Each structure stands twice: as structure tokens, then as C-alpha cells.
From TrEMBL, chains A, B:
Pfam families recorded: CBS, MgtE, MgtE_N
Gene name per UniProt: mgtE
Record's protein name: Magnesium transporter MgtE
Membrane topology field: Multi-pass membrane protein
NCBIfam families per the UniProt record, alphabetical: mgtE
Amino acid sequence: MQDILELAGVSRAAAVVDRLRGAQPADIVQQLNELDAAEAAEIVARLPLEKAADVFDHPDLAEPQTILAALRPAVAAEILDAMAADRLADLFRDMEEPPRERLLALLTREARAIIDALLVHPEGTAGSMMTTEFVSVPATWSVAETLRHIREVEGARETVYAIYVLDPITRRLQAAVSLRRLISGDPDALVGSVARFDQPVTVLPQADREEVARLISKYDLLAIPVVDEKNHVLGIVTVDDIIDTMIEVTTEDVHKFGGMEALDEPYTRIGFAEMLRKRAGWLAILFLSEMLTASAMQHFEDELEKAVVLTLFIPLIMSSGGNSGSQATSLIIRALALGELKLSDWWRVALREIPTGLALGGFLGVIGVARIAVWQEAGIFDYGPHWMLVALTVGLALVAIVTFGSLAGSMLPFALKRLGFDPASASAPFVATLVDVSGLVIYFSVALVVLSGTLL
Amino acid sequence: MQDILELAGVSRAAAVVDRLRGAQPADIVQQLNELDAAEAAEIVARLPLEKAADVFDHPDLAEPQTILAALRPAVAAEILDAMAADRLADLFRDMEEPPRERLLALLTREARAIIDALLVHPEGTAGSMMTTEFVSVPATWSVAETLRHIREVEGARETVYAIYVLDPITRRLQAAVSLRRLISGDPDALVGSVARFDQPVTVLPQADREEVARLISKYDLLAIPVVDEKNHVLGIVTVDDIIDTMIEVTTEDVHKFGGMEALDEPYTRIGFAEMLRKRAGWLAILFLSEMLTASAMQHFEDELEKAVVLTLFIPLIMSSGGNSGSQATSLIIRALALGELKLSDWWRVALREIPTGLALGGFLGVIGVARIAVWQEAGIFDYGPHWMLVALTVGLALVAIVTFGSLAGSMLPFALKRLGFDPASASAPFVATLVDVSGLVIYFSVALVVLSGTLL
């Protein structure tokens, strides 16, 4: 009975594999992610080796380590050997013991050396994203020789569309040529002659991944060479890795802008405790800072007792400051990320945000005054005999607080960047908290001036 | 004298052009953007035609229309003819009269027909991003024939790395093959034999640009074919266009999440009036909604008069709800954008956010109660004889409001998506406003229960 069941399992797996033979790796990954590791391993073991390696090269595969650990060591070793060097390094970077040592032992000596070299680079740098599987040829080769070489190594290279031409003696990078230029070029010409540009665009291994993305996007590259100070090519970062990086960075930035630590995993997969941890930290910091509002209000307790009418507008006025601040912060975070603004541009931005804040604050102030006047005159609510002065206080406070919000919101990303933090940490809640505390002080100060002698 | 000056100008321009001959288009664009249109036109006119077309193909060129209008018509016509079809369509899509008609007249009849076909597709769709300059061959061709064809057309195609194999009679798409596979394949084999996958990944012209980006990223494509319902290839979208799109979409999403309309232009280049317009709209909507807080407080006026001590914690409690809501919104916006969550998953998220909110609210509640107790016992501030009940009110209200914030913040993107809006419109200020109004009602309701018979 057991045998028959097993047999049924085997033939089912075989049927699945048959369907997957011509499928895209991304689609196979999606199906494997829905199985447990043992089932997934059964499928993977039956895939052609090249396909299996493609599956493990795909960044969306949920538990590559567990599946590898569930495979027969010989099969796992073959797959590891066929994987792209950069993905292999990523795999071991994230891996925990026990499987780590056992899987490392399956690697060839060369693969181990390559991985060790890649793992030196800190996560998030060009060095940590690069792969060593690129095509390079000496400048003395002809176009035809280069094409012959590409045909031979095609299967073992991450991309063959960018070819790096090296000085035959120093092995320094001289030029980058594209396959399209090569195949339409004169076969007898030197390989460097089909280069379109004087200087290949390169990046140092310690460059941030966002800088790599910026360069690939700016120069429309399919791959960028990572070089050392002497212009030796250490590896390349390809455009598909950059797209994955951009998606990851965007997610992190949105999470941070929402006022939390960025999740490393999809919302659907992260554990409850981890989720709490990522959210509780910033929530507590913001809460402790916001406690200053209670202190500020305690300071104005006498005024509050005398003019309870003022409390009615506290949330309205404070939130307006936070909203204008959040707008300004979102603008500046992106402008800094895109390189449209530099740190030294802060005063230019300040000079722009002050009139913007005054105009927006004036606009809201007029609405606010009108609201109070209409409610009063229509008899909806009685703001007391001095309602005109109360309206004036609200209007003036709105101008001041919206201006302050725009200014504070736009300066916060600069300040964070200056202090060495990520400007994207200037979250909307962070700005709102900053503006709330100062907003209260501004509101009561305006009230003291306008209402002194009447309500206060 | 005039002549000599002109001569100096000419020789200076010639020297500049000499330097630019081997430069990357992106770097030339950067330099041109710092000149006025007449100066830029002078440089462009001296560049080799291919280079000039590359410059106009670059999306960062600030004022392509003005520069084209400043060129001699013959030169402008040559450049327009050499440009990529998708960029040409973008150019005319954005162009205003007068130059539009004049430049359109410079196009060849074929170019006009192609542009007219591309301009049919609404902005932001796959159809509007595609170019018609792709390589396609009938399935009856051999690998060698295909390579010969690629060599001939290389200069006039946006990419030659993806080749589309069509049914020789119906011209429907059968397979996509890569140049790398072709050059290492058997020259006499049929072109389709080197295809790696059963089904080419395709997209319909009406697909959203974010869907195009998702597919290119998921399947690691260099280009994706845009096909009609009958699987005829209409054009392709290339990976470099997608990267530009992703950057644009991210900027728009951050702006929206910051609570404003997305800017179409860099912060540094947008006009003052346009900037006000983009910010004032949402600011006013949020302000009008937030006015409900004033109404809510008016409703609880009696309670406020009796227990001024309650007002001290209003900003603290309300902002905590807004912050937890902003966190939840940022999580869900990204999870929806990445396809990790579908509309039908809303209840799964709700079931997750409620315990998360309770835990986070409990955590903040404990801090809040401790704060009041410490201030009271240390004699920093006197919250009155019923300070313990006040502390209990604050603690319970925090639990309720943070839970409500997490729930509302996570459901808002779903609700917007359900109603056909962009879930990214669920901005942090939007959520904060939503939670502020309800937060006040929750706070006073809790107070009425806890403090009834003592303070209230």
C-alpha cells in the first residue's frame, strides 16, 4: 500500500515536472512557494539542472536553504555549482546554521573562493550585489575572436550583452562594448573599435546600491562593471538585480515614511513578534516625543481654564501643520533621493518653503475664519462674545503653523542627511510630532497676544 | 568685430562638440540642460546625427521641443527621423502649439503614421510606452538567417537582444528568443528551436505601466512584447523605459503618501503657482475633514468644561492613533503594489491588524499610565484627586485608538482600491485625519464611562 502511494506520488511529481519543463523560472518559483520543502525538493530534483539553477537564482524563492537541505547532497551540490555567483553569495549571506556548514562543504573550491570574496562586501553595496560571471577580453583581440569566445562561455555568464575590454598587460578596463555592436561590426577590427563611448561607466565596490541604480538608470545600461581603484573589473551588477533592488528600496522607503522600521519580508510572511518589533520602536519614540504636547498644555493650563473655547481648535490647527510638513518632507525626500537637490541646497529650499507655507497657511486661515463666522452667525455654535478675536487667533495661528510645518518638514530630511542618517527616516509621523509640539506653543502664543485683556 | 565674436562663438561650440563626441548621452544632456535653447541647439547641430538622436531619446533632456524649434528645420527633421518611435511619441504627446504643428510637418509620412498609432494609447499604459522598433522574424527562418537580419537592422532597432518569432502566415507571436541563445545556437536550426520557454511573456496595450514593470521584474526580461488580443506584436517596452517608469511611479507614490498631488516635474523646476495648486487641494480637503474634530469637541463641551485635565492628553492620544494608522497604511500600500495582497485578502489583514493594534496600544497605554503616575507622585504636575482614573482613561483610550488606527489605516487602501482609486492615495495625513475625528469620540466615550460620577 505504502509502495502504491509512493508510486502515485512519484508519478504525480513527474507529471508536474513535465509541465514545468518549458515554464518560466518565476512561475515555477511561485508554484514551489506553495509547497512544503520536501515536496518542493522532490520537484526540483526532477528538473533539468539548468532549470533548477534558474529557480534557485530567482530572488522570490521563499526557502532556498530548506529546499537545498532536503535534497540529496549530490543534487544540491550540482545545483549550487550551476547557480549565479551573486545569488550563491546572497544565499550563504542569509543562511543560518545548521544547514550553512553542510551546504558550504558541497561547494567546489573555486566556488568557495568566489563566495568568500563576494561576502567581504557589506550588504547594500555594489560589491555585495555583483556577480563575477562576466565576459572580458584583452584589447588585442579582434571582433571575430571575441564573438567566438562569447559563443563558448555564453552558458556560464550572467550576461554576454556587455563585454569588457581590458588592457592586455595591466588588465585594467579600457572600454565596454555591446554584443549588438560586435555582431554588426567588422570581424577583423580590434574589439575596442566598436565601443561607442570614450569612458565606460563604472562603480566602486563600496558604492551604495542606490548609487548603482542611479547610474544604470541614467546611462541606460544592461550591466555596470564594479572596479577597484586601479580600474580592474571585480564583477558586474546587472539590470535585473537593480530592478529587484529598486523595488526593495521603494518598499523600505515607504515603510520608513509611514513611521516604522522597514520589513525585510513580505507582510504576508512576517511573524507576529517581528512585526510588533518593527512597529513598536518608532511608535514608542514618537509617543515619548509627543508627550511634550501634554507638558506644553500643562504649561498653558491657566489659559485653558479661562478659555475652553481655544481647545476646540487644537486638533484642527495642529494637524494642518503636520499635513503641510508631511507634504514638504515627501517632496524633499524624493528630490534628495533623485539627486535633484544636494545638501548645500537647503537654504534654497527654505527660501521657497517659507512663501509656500505663508500662502497655504493664509488659504487655510481664511477657510478657518469663515467656518467660525458661519457657525456663529448661523447659530450652530456660540463661540462667546469675543468670537471674532477667537477666529482671528485661529486664522493667524494657521498661517504661522502651516509655514512652520512646511519649513520644518522640508529641513528635517536635510538635517538627517547632514547627521549621517537616511533622509527617508523623516517620516510623516515624525514631522507631525515635531510640528505638534511647536504648533501648540505657537497657537497659545498667538492667543496670548490676540486675546489678552479679553478672554485671557 | 561682430564677425570675430561670432567666429569665437563658433570655435568654442566646435571645441565643446569635440569633447562631447565620445561622451555618454546622459552626460551631454546634463550639460545641455544648463544652457539656453539657442546655445543647446548650436551644440546639437554640430553633433553626429546618431549622437544627437541619442540626446533627444534621453528622458532627462529638459526642453527638447524648444531646442528642436531653435534648430534649422532640415536638421530638426533629420533628428526626429533618427529618434526612437516611443520617445518621438512622448515628445509630441507633451508638446504644445505653436511648435507642435511645425515639427509634425517635418516628420516623414511613415513616422507620422507610427506616432499617430502610438498616441492612441492613453498615458501610463503599456501601449503608450512601447516602441515599434523591434526585431521579428518568421518561424521558418534559420538561426543563421535571423542573425544576418539582425546585423542589417541593428542600427534601427531599440533592442536586438530579444527577437520575436512569428507564425509565417498569421503573424501571431510564437516564441521569444534571445540574441545570446542565437549566437551560440546551431546556425542551421530553425530560429524557434533556441527558445527557452514554452510561452513568451506578453502584455496587452491597455495594461497599466506598473503591471508592465511587475512582469519585466518578475521574469527578468530585457523587453516585453505588447500584443493585441490575437497575439500580434504591436511593439515592445524595454527595460530602460521601465526603470525610468519605476522611478517616476515611486516619486508619485511618495508625494501622494505625503498627502499631496504628485508633481510632474522636479522640485527644483516646478513653478510656484503649480506647486501651490498641487499642495492646496489635499490640504484643504484634509482641513475641511479635520473640522469635524472641532464639531466633536463642541459636542463634548460640557465634559471639557468640567474636566480640563482631559484636554492635556488630546494631542498625545490622537497622534498615537494617526501614527499606528500611518504604519499600517504604508505596509498595505506596498503589499498591494507588489501583488503580495489581493483585494479579497482584506479580512485576513483585518484579523492580523486587530491583535497587532491591541498589543501596540497596550504597550503605549502602559507608558502613558506610567507617565501620569510618575508626574503625579513626583509632584511635577497635579492631575487632581482622581488622577488614577484619569490615567486609566488615557491608557484604555490608547488601546482602543491605536487598535482603531491600525485597523482603519490598513483597510483604507483596500477601500480606495475597491472604489477604483489608487490605493497609494491613502496618505499618512489622510489616515491621521480619519483617526483624529474618531479618536476624539473614542477618548471622550472612554472618559464618560471611567470618570462618570467622579469628574464627569
